[in-house]
Amino acid sequence: MLEGSLYPIMNYMAFQKYISYVKPDIKQYINIMAVETSNLAADDGALVIGYQEILNRALNQERFLNEYPKSNRVQQVKNLMNNYTLYTFYGLNNTPLFDYETNKMTANAQKGYKAVLQRNSSEDSAFLTKLEKFMDIVTEAKFEKTAAVEKWLEQNVPVSDYANY
Predict the structure, then answer these.
(1) Which pLDDT score, from 0 to 100, does residue 123 have?
(2) What is the C-alpha R_g of the chain?
(3) 44's torsion region: left (phi>0), alpha (psi -120 to 50) or beta?
């Protein structure tokens, strides 16, 4: 039960024993969802996993979408990817990327994002390419949410494009 709503969380870990019987896209989907359901990313409007984990999950989702564009699970993974895009560039109400009072970017996000960008090539990842450009803008703004940062976000990651209404 979250935010006054009750909903089931499927135990995808239980499906792991069937992985050898399903197609590669479903295998990858089960793996993605097993991670999601065994360790939720958010709870009560707050992130409960680290920033590097957010990016790693988003990269797995992006990889799925690139490798299996015709899978019948594309829409579910797109919805997840949309959530992780918002978590990455905005945070959540109770864990904003930029502090509400100081407008400074969370230090853990700065470290986590830099570490993932150093470890991974953005060459094959539209998500990492966007994150790299974002970090350039934010670094230039001394990690403050300035008008330039807000403008970049509005132009490149508009909330309306990623919110699952």
Answers:
(1) 83
(2) 17
(3) left
Decide: 137 and 148 in contact? Cβ < 8 Å.
yes
Q: With contact defined as beta carbons under 8 Å apart, do 113 and 55 qualify?
A: yes
Q: Are 41 and 57 in contact (CB under 8 A)?
A: yes
pTM: 0.91
DSSP state of 123: T
Pairing outcome for strands 95-96 and 91-92 = antiparallel
Q: What is the dihedral of CA 108, 123, 159, 89, to 10 degrees?
A: 10
Q: Which residues of 14-41 are buried (b: 16+ CB within 10 A; e: fewer)?
A: ebeeeeeeeeebbbbbbbbbbbbeeeeb
In this model, does residue 6 exceed pLDDT 80?
Answer: no
- Are the beta carbons of 126 and 82 closer than 8 angstroms? no
Which tens digit of pLDDT belongs to each residue from 76-88?
999 999 999 999 9
What is the DSSP-derived secondary structure letter of residue 144?
B
Binned at pLDDT 50, 70 and 90, residue 155 comes out as: very high
